[in-house]
Write the structure tokens for this entry.
Amino acid sequence: MTTATLTPTMPSKAALFEAQAVKAGARRNRLLSLPALIIIGIFGVLPLLIICVYSFLVAAPYGGVQWQFSTDAYLNFLFQRDIFDDTLQFTPDFLIIYLRSFLFAVVTTIICLLLGFPTAYFMATRPPAQRNWWVLLITIPFWSNLLVRTLAIMFIIRDEGLINNALLALGVIDKPITMLYTNFAIQLGLLYAFLPFMVLPLYSSLEKLDFRLIEAAYDLYATRRQVLWRVIIPLSKPGIIAGCLLVFIPALGAYVTPLILGGGVHLMIGDLIAQQFGSGRNWPLGCAQALILMAAVLVALFFYVRNTSGKVQHG
Amino acid sequence: MGIAFKKRVAAPQLPSRSAYGDNRTGTHLPPRAGSLNGVIVPEQPGKNAIEVRGVRKVFGTGENQVAALDTVSVSIRENEFFTLLGPSGCGKTTLLRLIAGFDFPSAGEILLHGQDIAPLPPFKRPVNTVFQNYALFPHMTVAQNIGFGLEMLGKPKGEIEARVAQMLKLVKMEALKARRTSQISGGQQQRVALARALAPQPKVLLLDEPLSALDYKLRKEMQIELKRLQHETGITFIFVTHDQEEALTMSDRIAVMSAGKILQVGTPRDIYDRPAERFVADFIGETNFLAGTVMSKKPGMATVKFASNATIAAGYPEGFDPTGEVTLVVRPEHADLVPDPAKGTIAGTLSNIVYFGTDTHYHVRLDGGENFIVRHQNSRSSPATYETGAKVGIQFEEDAARVLKD
């Protein structure tokens, strides 16, 4: 009889304590994540909302916005309003800049991958004590400002730069090869700036690779090429995906490199957007361009991740 | 006369190999000759599957040089279950890796059916390995893992599928063929690793401590399974282990290794009953060591005197000349207790009796101060006649004692 009366209360007490503990734990977790949430809110979500709102407003003559709803910013992306008859005419100028930027970013990603993979593999196959030194070497460029490094490239490739002077002195060429302010210069600058972002995730992925699997593949008649394609690359896919994202996205929005090495002649998206807030004095257009870029990246990302993760699944 | 001669050269009949030699499935390969996708195929099968000749393997350079293998020679016969047995660091895995092609010998040659394979990369040797940790490809299914070797050999798709199905059946893993290797248990991974290594029909299968990661019961099961697979496939197995019991129960022949050298090669019975060196006797099974002095000897047999003045006839290995102070070895089960100390060859006091279920160990402190263990198999009628502290004698069975090199 006593046990019958006791049993219902005992577990309920224990359950109460447990529920309280769970609640306290949840509260503590929320509290701990608060700083991160505040930072994301203030510096991520809020500016994005402002950009969204601004993109649907009208540009004020001297910068800033007038509080008047308009979709002109988005129309202006593809069309130009004729000053006289007010009709919309298709102008692909911005689209061309976007496509060119995409091309630059894609080429940068591919070349970074081709250069970065052997580098990362080399690093990952060194004795463990040596590896950290190689990581250190890879990160040395980060110690100085990107602007300074980009200017250094400028001094190397300009008409009176290191390369041209050396080639002239050796008599290989009679007049300097124009490299600065060309697409080549932008591409070189992008590769230089983003290669470490490819190497590091690849390295961290390859370092975890079980090299006994490579032995097993060799043992099962795989040649070196087959081992690479059938074992090493599929198993380092997470690193490849991370590296490609880390290179492609910032390369797409690169600002400093094309500005300095492209001389403002060969625009990329970053420069175009910056122009709208500067000399263009068209903030809504700048906001619309930024959002269109973001949407494009999200769509590209969606397909990229879906395809690559699918390949991992099917070996 | 002529007929007798013909009989002598006739090829020995091999046991039927149901898993492989079944032509009706249509998957049986035509006789291979020359080279298949760059993998060498020995032309004339000799008596020996693998011949290791004077192989040395040195790691490191200068002062840090370590000889992992010190001029090792051994022949492994076709269809043999051959075991390399020794403590860790004895060079057994190094020898296996040299045969597999993961490392290359510093000196010497390795012949596969008479052909030197030592300089070939692993993917050109018709030799496959079952790795200690299985090394299954985590990004492939069970079936894809098993088919990998055949795929790399460039076999047609239909043939690969048929062989994979055959292998899945052989290792009883049909139900799990679509699973990832991370979704199956250790024992199942072991089976997949075996199937993967057997699928390309290697001339020799190398097994690097494949059972060490399994628990005791599963290990026992896999030991029997391995023997069955070896019998059914007719492939030469080279098995590396540090577990002497495993080696004794599974092998046709065993090579006992220590410090980069092969100390003795022989059948399990040879190794156990007639160890060539003290290390072999000590490493395999339990052994009693007794000090004695050689009084006289004739070929293969020496008369040894104990401190107690008792003498005994003891065999000794070929190529060994025992003189003066020597060590005698006697297996615990080759000796017997007698209640009367005077009737034993040696005598002592029972210090401990340990009951093991199947048998009982009697620890005897000899009058000379040494310890001696007698193992007695239990039966329902065994009388418990002895008590600790009792004076007992120990009798040896005939040929029980051997004189060994230290």
